[in-house]
Structure formats: structure tokens, C-alpha cells
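One-letter codes give the sequence; backbone shape is given numerically. An example follows:

. . .
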Amino acid sequence: MSQLSRSTRVSAPCPMAARMRGIALRVTACLALCCGLAALPVPTQHGAASTRPVQSALAFLPGEARAEMTVGQTIYVPVYSSVVYGNRGRTLNITTMLSVRNTDQRAPITLMEVRYVDEHGQTVRSYLDGPRQLPPLGSAQFVVEESDTLGGSGPAFIVVWRAAAQVSQPLAQGVMIGTVSSQGISFITEGKVIGGVK
């Protein structure tokens, strides 16, 4: 056997080694996604560790997961000032409360706007005179009294918030409570993100 053929055989890549490098590459990428190891070196297909950092883990996540970390949103929260009950179409007025909760454990968020709009989309009232800060894990509540029927049958809250840096998306819910005779009724609605902040 010639010296050249022996050299070629020795330097040929081993299929098992290539497969192990591929597995290491995938495991490293998974660690970067799950643990946020954005600066972890990634082994290349040639076996050497790349000095180029892994791209931000957020770049690999689906759109819905990326939306959980953001710097501001406009949230639409459907609520109800009355409900129909019984066989005769009777109406029961109920108390409505908006609850906004900062779910981030480290950073505050700032409520820029909280508006109550009626069934035609017209603003009935604004609840803030200026920005209101919610501390980490803090919350705020805004109430529409049972006797207040200005919102009509399908009112909503519009909540606009922002933060100085990316934070966990806050929770915005409508809480409805009412009673008729000796029976009570209570239910909640979830906010829907309809835009960012200006």
C-alpha cells in the first residue's frame, strides 16, 4: 500500500464521530433555547468549537412564545355589565372589575392608559390621569359599579402598558360578579393583545 493511500485512509472522517458531533450540535442548541445560554460556543460539523455565540434563544422560538417577552402592548379585555338569564330574557346587572397583574418578578411595568369603552367602541371613561407603575408581581384593579350601564351589553377595557426592557407579558382579566335572588354568578374573561405601544 502506498504512503498516500495510507494517509488518505487515516484522515477520512469516521461516520460515528461525525454522528456524535451532530448530536452534540443539536444538544447545545437545545440547551441554548431552554436555559438561555446565548453565549455558549457551538461545535461545528468539523469538530471544533465555534467562537461565534449562539443567536438569541428568542429567535428560535415560535411567535406565540416570543410574544410572552415584550416591552409594551395594547390589550383588549372584553367585559359584561349585564347578562341575560331565565326563560323570559330577563337581564341582570353585574359588577365588573378589570384586573391587571405584572407577572414579571424583576422589573416594573407602567400602565400608560386604561379606558372603558362601550358596545359601540366609544370611550366612556379613562381611569388614569397619568402613567401608573406596577412593581414586580404588583397588580391594579378598576371597577365598574353594578348600576353603571353606560357600556351597554358589550363593553370592554383597553389597556396600554410599556416597560423599560423586555418583561414577562402581564395578565389582564375581566372579573364579573352578580347575584339574583339567592343565586350568585361570577366569571372571568381574558385580555387579547391587539397591538403595541406608540
Q: What stands out?
A: Helices lie at 3-11, 15-35, 63-66. The chain has a mean pLDDT of 79. The first strand starts at residue 69 and ends at 78.
